[in-house]
Amino acid sequence: MKRSTINEIMQAADDMIRSYGFKLPPFAYWTPDMFVAQKTQAKALIEARCGWDITDYGDGRFDEMGLFLFTLRNGRLADLQRGGGMCYAEKLLISRQDQLSPMHTHVIKAEDIINRGGATLVVELYGSDDVGSFAEDRGGVVMCDGIARSFAPGEKLKFAPGESLTLMPGDWHAFWGEGGDVLIGEVSTVNDDETDNVFRAPIGRFAEIEEDVAPMHLLVSDYTKWLG
To answer: What is the tally of structural domains in the chain?
Structure first.
């Protein structure tokens, strides 16, 4: 993806988020130089990989297959492993109309996916086989706003603003906006995008960046290069 395109997506996403009454935290608006200057104080943010995340899954077709995310807060895996402390994470996502977030599951993370505003969120679901792999012939049970709901393999559940879905490890899912763009909230256990995303197709999690202009804000995938 071109950096200029990423900058445009950031601005449009911020505008949409604000339009629904949300506001990103102050560090979201730091320039790269401001982040470098405050990297010692921001160590916890950097290690937790909080911040901007825009991906085309390495496929180069963001409008067709991609996702905007902003990690607001993220806990510590060590706390999760010992069963106490900061064991949670929170994100905002934007799924554009007909923009696919491809079929995947998680090994550790359980998550609530909440339609915070906009159009209809469509989630396609499959179950797992006995070792957790994608099972084309298996459905399962998920919680929709606290109510158990069975799903057939490949069933597409639809969520209006205010409605939500709880996904557990092994619940395979893909999603997109129907009828327009959707602002999504995600509340989950500790999030690790480096190792805990298991995709059905052999795709990448992060975009490759063409640096045609300077970054407006750093992506989480920029932190290693810029912040060490």
So the answer is: 1
What DSSP assignment string belongs to the chain? -BHHHHHHHHHHHHHHHHHTT----GGGG--HHHHHHTTTTTHHHHHHT-EEEEE-TTSS-TTTB-EEEEEEEE--HHHHHHT-S--EEEEEEEE-BT-BEEEEE-SS--EEEEEEEEEEEEEEEEEE-TTS-EETT--EEEEETTEEEEE-TTEEEEE-TT-EEEE-TT-EEEEEEEEEEEEEEEEEE---TTTS-EESSS--SS---B-SS--SS-BGGGHHHHH-
Residues 139-175: tens digit of each pLDDT: 999 999 999 999 999 999 999 999 999 999 999 999 9
Is the dihedral angle over the CA atoms 143, 148, 151, 156 positive or is it negative?
negative
Structural domain of residue 76, as residue ranges? 3-227
Task: Output the domain CATH number for residue 141.
Answer: 2.60.120.10
Q: Identify residue 9 by its one-letter amino acid code.
A: I
- Whether 181 and 94 have beta carbons less than 8 Å apart is answered as yes
pLDDT in tens, 24-53: 999 999 999 999 999 999 999 999 999 999
Q: Which amino acid is at 210?
A: E
**What's this model's pTM, rounded to 2 decimal places?**
0.95
Residues 13 and 70 sit within 8 Å (Cβ to Cβ): yes
